[in-house]
Every structure is written in structure tokens, then in C-alpha cells.
Design a protein that fits this description.
There is one protein chain. By secondary structure, the protein is α/β, with parallel strands linked by helices. It has a single domain, classed as Alpha-Beta Complex (Spore Coat Polysaccharide Biosynthesis Protein SpsA, Chain A), CATH 3.90.550. 36% of the residues lie in helices and 17% in strands. The chain is built from 8 helices and 9 strands. It has a 9-stranded mixed β-sheet with strand order 1-2-9-7-8-6-3-4-5, with helices on both faces. Helix 5 runs parallel beside helix 8 and helix 7 packs parallel to helix 8. The protein is globular and about 45 Å long.
Length: 248
């Protein structure tokens, strides 16, 4: 794969993506979910053939678990609320099951699961340890709200100031080698999860690539973060606090 350097980060453009198809049987997909019954059928129907799909039900009341099972996913129940807590539960299951690569994907169908191959290939080809989906140049109109764009800008700039490493995005669609993820010893229970992961990747010297991915408007409902001003502000403050905490 040929990549362009952006400070210390590597950014692959659409024309530079590796053409080799990886063996996705080594991949576990983790979908943290809270009341995503309307959108999960679309996500799971579009899912490529992977080793396993773990839907982590974080306290849903709308039949998320039943919908997930009916589409072939394994369901994990995580009673402790928070995006990070849900991710950790899925990661433990993926690691215990021996999967080489973990992909984290939202359950709102804003991302295309068929693009997963782009994220996984560099890891299986030993060209990267973590690959992030970059939404910044390819999102549909309205798919990334103003609070999300503002939070993304603040977080990436703070990480750059704290570490010298420049990311383009803080998006949730990402792939990482399972052993690398376990080595991070992730702790954050909620909004600081992505900041913690991206900062620890720098600190541990991981090879990081960002690859453009499609970002669509949600199928239904509001984002748990950007759906309200209060949630967006809480998320932004937590991301700033997390940058200061995990940059040390």
C-alpha cells in the first residue's frame, strides 16, 4: 500500500487502497448497541462474511437483542452503561475466541460494513496495527452534525498539541490488531474511548493509517452523542479531559 504522510499519520486515498482481499474469518466485529433495533437489520444484512459479529446490548428496551440474533449475530449483554464499557465487553469476547483483528462499528448504519475490507487488509498484510475510517472528506450532507465536527476538530488538535501526531478524524469505524488493543489496557467507560485509543496508539508506537470511508445519515433515531446539545457538550468536555489524561 502506498500512503501519504501527514505529520506522523498515514492517510491512504481512495486510489491507494490495497487490492488484496483479506481472509475475514480472522475478524471479529463489535457493535455497541443501545436501542438500535430499527437500523441493525440494515447493518447486519450488509455485513460481509466475517469470523463473528458481537452485538453488545448496553441496556436496550426495543428488541435489539432479538433482532441481532435473528440476523446471525452473537449477543452480549453489558449492564454497565457507556460506549467504552460496551466495547470492552465485546473485545473480551473477541480475544477469548481467538480472533486476530477486531473491527468496531456503530449500529446506526451510518457506515457501510462492506468497506470493512479496506480497514482490515493493511493489518492482515502487516502494514499497520490500527486503521481508522476517515469521514471528513466523504460524509453525506448532514451525516456529521456541527457538534460532531467541532468536537472532532478540538480533539484532533488537542492530540496534535499533546503528542505531535496529527489525526484527521475521531470516527468510530476502526480496525485494530487484537493483541495491540489488549496491550492498550483500555479504561474509559464512555465518551473518552476513542481519544484514549488514539493517544495510546501513539504512545505505544503503533503504525496507524486513516482510510476514507462512507458516512451516511442515520437510518432512524438520533445519535446518542450529537442528538442533543447537552450530550454534545458533555461529550466534548469528556474528550478534552481524556486528551489531558491519556496524553501523559
Amino acid at each position: 500500500m502506498v500512503c501519504a504522510r501527514l505529520d506522523h499519520a498515514l492517510v491512504a486515498t481512495e486510489g491507494q487502497l490495497a487490492a488484496v482481499s483479506p481472509t475475514l474469518t480472522h475478524v471479529a466485529v463489535i457493535i455497541p448497541a443501545l436501542n438500535e433495533a430499527e437500523s441493525l437489520p440494515y447493518v447486519l444484512s450488509d455485513m460481509p462474511s466475517v469470523g463473528a459479529v458481537f452485538v453488545v446490548d448496553n441496556g436496550s428496551t426495543d428488541g435489539t437483542a432479538d433482532i441481532s440474533r435473528s440476523h446471525g449475530a452473537r449477543v452480549i449483554f453489558e449492564p454497565s452503561k457507556g460506549y467504552g464499557n460496551a466495547c470492552k465487553a465485546g473485545i473480551k469476547e473477541a480475544a477469548d475466541s481467538g480472533f486476530e483483528v477486531v473491527v468496531i462499528l456503530d449500529g446506526d448504519h451510518s457506515f457501510n460494513p462492506q468497506e470493512m475490507e479496506r480497514l482490515v487488509t493493511p493489518i492482515l498484510m502487516d502494514e499497520a496495527d490500527m486503521v481508522l475510517g476517515d469521514r471528513t472528506q466523504s460524509a453525506e450532507r448532514g451525516a456529521i452534525t456541527f457538534p460532531q465536527r467541532f468536537g472532532n476538530m478540538v480533539a484532533t488538535q488537542l492530540i496534535h498539541a499533546a503528542s505531535g501526531f496529527r489525526y484527521r478524524d475521531m470516527g468510530p469505524f476502526r480496525a485494530i490488531r487484537t493483541s495491540s488493543l489488549l496491550n492498550m489496557q483500555m479504561r474509559d467507560p464512555n465518551y473518552g474511548w476513542n481519544v484514549e485509543m488514539q493517544l495510546k496508539a501513539i504512545r505505544l508506537g503503533y503504525r496507524v493509517i486513516e482510510i476514507p470511508v462512507t458516512c451516511r445519515n442515520r437510518v432512524a433515531g438520533q445519535s446518542k452523542i450529537s442528538g442533543s446539545l447537552r450530550s454534545a457538550l458533555r461529550c466534548g468536555l469528556k474528550m478534552m479531559w481524556s486528551t489531558l489524561r491519556y496524553a501523559r
